[in-house]
Amino acid sequence: MDGWDKPGHDETENGVAKVQGMTPDQISALDAQDPLRAKRAEFHIPEGLIYLDGNSLGPLPKAVPQRVCHAIEDEWGRRLIRGWNEAGWIDLPRKVGDKIARLIGAAPGTVIAADSTSINLLKALSAALELRRERKIILSDAKNFPTDLYVAQGLVRGLARGHELKLVEASEIHDALDERVAVLMLTEADYRTGQLYDMRALTARAHKMGALAIWDLCHSAGAFPVDVTGAGADFAVGCGYKYLNGGPGAPAFIYVAPQHASAVSPFLAGWMGHEAPFDFDPFYRPGPGIDRMLVGTPAVLSLSALDAALDVFADVDMRLVREKSIALGDLFIAEVEHQYAGADLKLASPRDGAKRGSQVSFHCAHGYEAMQALIAAGVIGDFRAPDIMRFGFTPLTLSYREVADAASILVRVLSEGEWKKPQYAVRAKVT
Amino acid sequence: MDGWDKPGHDETENGVAKVQGMTPDQISALDAQDPLRAKRAEFHIPEGLIYLDGNSLGPLPKAVPQRVCHAIEDEWGRRLIRGWNEAGWIDLPRKVGDKIARLIGAAPGTVIAADSTSINLLKALSAALELRRERKIILSDAKNFPTDLYVAQGLVRGLARGHELKLVEASEIHDALDERVAVLMLTEADYRTGQLYDMRALTARAHKMGALAIWDLCHSAGAFPVDVTGAGADFAVGCGYKYLNGGPGAPAFIYVAPQHASAVSPFLAGWMGHEAPFDFDPFYRPGPGIDRMLVGTPAVLSLSALDAALDVFADVDMRLVREKSIALGDLFIAEVEHQYAGADLKLASPRDGAKRGSQVSFHCAHGYEAMQALIAAGVIGDFRAPDIMRFGFTPLTLSYREVADAASILVRVLSEGEWKKPQYAVRAKVT
After folding, report:
1. What is the CATH code for B88-313?
2. Which end of chain A lies in a sparser environment, N or C, as judged by fewer CB atoms within 10 Å?
3. Among B43, B51, B197, B241, which one carries the catalytic annotation?
4. Can you tell me the ipTM of this complex?
């Protein structure tokens, strides 16, 4: 694992990196030495495409179609209602949760897969406020992913008990964490820039102030090693369709720290969270531990897809994923900056890979158009308003060669004004 | 459509039906004349099985495997993130909602498919309480499906503003509907007995008292004609996996009456309900009408299955479904009662088909064991605590012959004491 950890950076006198390009031979050597290179064969990757959007929707693991087909034709079609017992549908939220637990440093039995990230965040937030009844402030980052903020705004409005969602800049979070804060709610990796929060330090600070900490791991789980236990996180949520490759709209997950799991009585109470769902008791009695975070009937087909997708990680050392992720991001930055000096492109992500999630973003005033042109040229990233061109790096599927090529194509699209063609200005529903 | 609407009932002097069996020829004639008989070919129905549990999990429509396979391999696998626009994923909740709207008498654009029934009920209940801020009572049936009661209990506890879930017997609902009630929350067809509430009359009564009405249509949608518009329902919810055949844990639906849709600001607020999700606005602005009832990212694979499943209904006249449903239920009751006089089996459903959903239930003290023995004998119904043997009739897939045979097999299991074998006493996780 050498040769790529400093890919062409030389410090200049004023501390700004002066980047150098890599030779094709150097890049080939990186791919030849890549300990994760065999994983790509476990995915369907369309030919002729460089996919740098696995942080928005992970590619299709080859095990998924067969598994879902089996769930439909054998489990549902042939077993019908008996599938709940015979095919283990009833246990899927816990089974899938345990596979995710391993990736986020959670103990078995502390995570379930169900519902959406937004719904799970509402469960976590309402539980946290219940545990800190005397406090009224939910503290978050003004640039947090919008749905996180909307969930908190909806809850504050619904509770109508004088709670407040306090939004500050990332740099102000530490100082804003005072003894009036009930819960700190942050996304570990910023969805626009990839900037990482220090989960351990901020959770410790929250606890010192008597607050609880909820972490959104949408851009963390499956992207790099996460340690909710070591960080002391109280709650965590995340989605199944980004780095976990569970498919569009895959079920999300929720982690509840063991000391809280049986101490909260969920606001979102449903029959699957009851102590004995098939007693048909008219009165809610929360199930043991994490079980009570279940609400309605599990989405078996989607959970089956996610379950199969997670098996890709069974033999993966997440430290290797992190090493390659940083190397891919460093390479992309270096190649873009080496080849392109235009003032219209400015790095939005931390240059230091250790402070970055598994993505690299650039500010670009015509980023929407440039991204459409880039997609037409075979490189898929995405655009995030107002001006972010975002590129995700999924170490299980990407080669160094692809990342270097993507950089060259991006440079060409910008240099040659390809993005100015009128068709690239047409706005799509989903950007 | 004659010959089956009075299947073997003769009134005796005291008004109790004296039942007569039908001859095989009479039953064959019913099947030959059945205008829905061709629909069965659109489903995978395992051979050698009589499936009377489509009210718990509908059978697999043949269109589903191919559609889900396409969603996985082409839309996700090949198009990747572009599927949101190119494959129309972003519009699926509304598209599927419109197909369900037609089945429940709702206008296009008033229903979305998303989340679970429990989550949708929480949306409806919280919105209804917002519209009736000055009132504190949620009125429901003590025998309502438990998850409905749990959702209300969770909300009452979470709001902590002195709300009360008032539970009464079905016969007391009308009188309990007074001017203190904020919202009446009922399931149209009782999950145990199939007893139907008069949605129109009770909604009118609720409105007269200034209350709102939420109807759970889990056992109605796809089972018989529903008219939420004509009944004046304020909100309705229901699941996708029973009579709609969307598969295990299929997405549920929510209907909001047009006059309320833009008047409520959802408690459960998420990015897909925002006016402009891809503006990434930090402040929630609810989308137009029913759109604001969306929360998180739609479960595309599950929605695709449900979307394909609903096409089965495209050419179906729901009045014919209702006629056949009543006839199948009447036939089952008549055949069971004609052949079996044991005191251990007692009809739990209304004898009058017009007052019954698409199911027939019997009280039976050893119902759990008897149902296990019946399933082993090739007839699948289900058991609902404490003593209900439940049989669902799905007119699109069942023949009169099957229903008559199921009655005979049930009688044999009971008469011969088959159910006393020890293996049938072993409790399963899901009953």
Report:
1. 3.40.640.10
2. N
3. B241
4. 0.95
